[in-house]
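A reminder from the course coordinator: this example appears on the midterm review sheet, so study it carefully.

Given structure:
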């Protein structure tokens, strides 16, 4: 009798535990994260193109351009870095793009087209739990990917990682803001493909083009001014610039578009795109594919 009374009191609006509804939602979200992770690592193509791709690309660039020697050295020959070290920050930023935008946009579009989201109402999983599962998947896989990328760079390619705590704190807020932005944009972009078959064809060119114009594979200042200005509209350019401020020596700031790291602008642009992604997701997301 007392147990029943306690449950009734907790469920009532005037009960002493106003947060009683939170644990079921959290439990549902954690269950969704486990399901998402299990499904993610059971699809080899997804693991290759979003999880292992930056690591493989860093290995290819680091080995292929090793004979070119160090770049960015001062006049006295000091301060140069290897090509693997130069490509590391761009590929760290690209990993967040792949895990958030590409993975989510393709996955949600497929589930929507196949009717899985329409049947969500008949399952114990709530919409909140669904999005918590997606966000948790992106956060966990992106963090694991970044950790493996840094370990690979350090021990396989001999890249010197930052030794200052300030650099690691900067990496922390860049990761959190970057992954939140890419997750919101991935959900927003999932509304564009009309079917599961077209999802990859729609999303992949966008992601690939952004990587080439945002300083991931090419030095950003090598691009013509008009293309730099266009790339500066999108978040990957700013995320890659922020990552360069973490991993590259200070003298490399001089070759940025403005001659400085501009971390304030990096945070501002990522925050703006986070808001844009959330607003567009709220306006365009549908639980079933439009006919």
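Designed residues:
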């Amino acid at each position: 009798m007392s147990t029943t009374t306690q449950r009734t009191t907790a469920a009532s609006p005037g009960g002493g535990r106003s947060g009683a509804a939170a644990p079921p939602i959290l439990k549902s979200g954690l269950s969704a994260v486990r399901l998402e992770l299990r499904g993610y690592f059971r699809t080899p193509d997804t693991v290759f193109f979003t999880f292992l791709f930056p690591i493989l690309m860093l290995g290819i660039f680091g080995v292929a351009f090793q004979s070119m020697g160090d770049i960015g050295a001062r006049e006295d020959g000091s301060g140069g870095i290897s090509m693997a070290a130069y490509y590391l920050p761009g590929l760290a930023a690209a990993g967040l793009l792949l895990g958030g935008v590409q993975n989510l946009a393709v996955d949600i579009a497929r589930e929507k087209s196949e009717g899985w989201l329409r049947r969500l109402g008949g399952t114990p999983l709530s919409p909140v739990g669904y999005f918590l599962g997606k966000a948790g998947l992106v956060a966990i896989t992106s963090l694991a990917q970044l950790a493996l990328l840094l370990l690979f760079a350090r021990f396989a390619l001999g890249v010197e990682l930052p030794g200052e705590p300030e650099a690691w704190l900067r990496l922390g807020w860049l990761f959190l803001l970057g992954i939140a932005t890419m997750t919101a944009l991935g959900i927003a972009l999932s509304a564009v493909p009309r079917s599961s078959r077209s999802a990859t064809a729609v999303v992949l060119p966008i992601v690939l083009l952004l990587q080439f114009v945002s300083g991931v594979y090419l030095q950003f200042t090598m691009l013509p001014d008009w293309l730099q200005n266009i790339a500066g509209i999108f978040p990957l350019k700013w995320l890659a610039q922020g990552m360069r401020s973490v991993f590259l020596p200070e003298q490399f700031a001089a070759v940025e578009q403005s001659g400085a790291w501009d971390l304030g602008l990096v945070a501002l642009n990522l925050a703006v795109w986070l808001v844009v992604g959330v607003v567009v997701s709220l306006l365009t997301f549908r639980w079933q594919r439009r006919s």
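Residues 1-22 have pLDDT under 50 and may be disordered. The radius of gyration is 22 Å.
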